[in-house]
Amino acid sequence: MPTIIVCTNFSETSRNALAYTCSLIKNKADKEEISIVLLHVYTIPANYSGDGIALATINNALDDAEMDLHEELEWVQEEYGGLNVIGKVATGRLLVGLKNEIDEMQASLVILGTGGNYGDLWSWDGDILNLLRDLPVPVLTIPPDVSFRPLQNIAFACNLKNINSKTPFNTLINIIRFTESKLHVIYVTANALKPGSTEAGNEEMVSNNLKEIEPVYHTIFESRVVQAIGRFVEENQIQLLLVMPKRHGLWEGLFHKSFTKELARLNRLPIMALH
Predict the structure, then answer these.
(1) Rg value, the chain, Cα
(2) Sign of CA pseudo-dihedral 240, 21, 106, 87
(3) What is the dotted CATH code of the domain comprising 3-142?
(4) Nearest Cα to 1, choosing from 77, 58, 85, 68?
(5) How far is residue 121 from each of residues 86, 132, 168, 255, 267, measured CA to CA in Å?
(6) In whole angstroms, what is the distance from residue 90 CA to residue 75 CA?
(7) Which residues form the UspA domain (predicted)?
(8) pLDDT in tens, the chain (275 residues)
(9) Which of 128, 140, 179, 188 could bond 111 through an S-S bridge, CB–CB 3.0 to 4.6 Å?
(10) What are the CA-CA distances from residue 167 to residues 100, 171, 173, 215 (Å)?
(11) CA-based nearest residue to 141, from 153, 124, 158
(12) What CATH topology corresponds to 153-270?
């Protein structure tokens, strides 16, 4: 059974991400075969002393989390009856806790609500930044003001310099099959590809590996990558943007605080980090 982990801290942002997930699945013919795990990872404070008072405080916090989780599950059943949703409270650091749960549940996707705009990426919690780059499965981020819309057009921001045998082509294909969407592959470059170059060879690799889903390819001649991608997703009614995060690569460059104005278009868009 495919398993999706939805992270929650019981905020409105987390509730919105849960609603997006349920809306994505509720009309699928095989929805009963998909398991949604609503996961809260409680991080024990670094200054935990291990004495009786501290232990009682942690136990109370865990009890509160279980109650909050129960309320969220009741809400799901009222709004999205028929979906297979369970809840779990785990302890530990967010990244380590998620990796453990992914391994235990054989999860194929993690979904979380973003607490702010993409331009605020650098002020987000360090664990969240790390999981966007380091988890072994895709991570879908849902901005706070984004509601689910049927996915018809999905864009993959493709940096041909970084395409190799580890590029998750099968994941891309599975996403398109599951959503029944059209894939648009975007490559932003200041100059035309040179025959025999690494980029030209990688372009052929992308085409060969994705030919069964017949994507539409777009080469945008522009030096300002963020502005080009933002304009593309708006003009082509893209409902989901796929990126491959790399340290000091597109992910960090795309969401740098210096691009606040250009990111305004992307703040209305779910973005999935592929791994």
Answers:
(1) 20
(2) positive
(3) 3.40.50.620
(4) 85
(5) 30, 11, 24, 6, 11
(6) 21
(7) 3-119
(8) 699 999 999 999 999 999 999 999 998 878 889 999 999 998 876 665 555 546 667 788 899 999 999 999 999 999 999 899 999 999 888 888 899 999 999 999 999 998 765 554 444 455 666 777 789 999 999 988 899 999 999 999 998 988 999 999 999 999 999 999 999 999 999 888 888 899 999 999 999 999 999 999 999 999 888 888 889 999 999 999 998 876 545 545 555 544 444 455 577 789 998 98
(9) 140
(10) 24, 9, 12, 16
(11) 124
(12) Rossmann fold (3.40.50)
**Where in the chain do CATH 3.40.50.620 domains reside?**
3-142, 153-270
Q: How far apart are CA 13 and CA 225, in angstroms?
A: 28
- In DSSP notation, 186-207 reads EEEESSPPPTTSHHHHHHHHHH
* 147's tokens: 């509601």
CA 255 from chain centre, in angstroms, equals 14
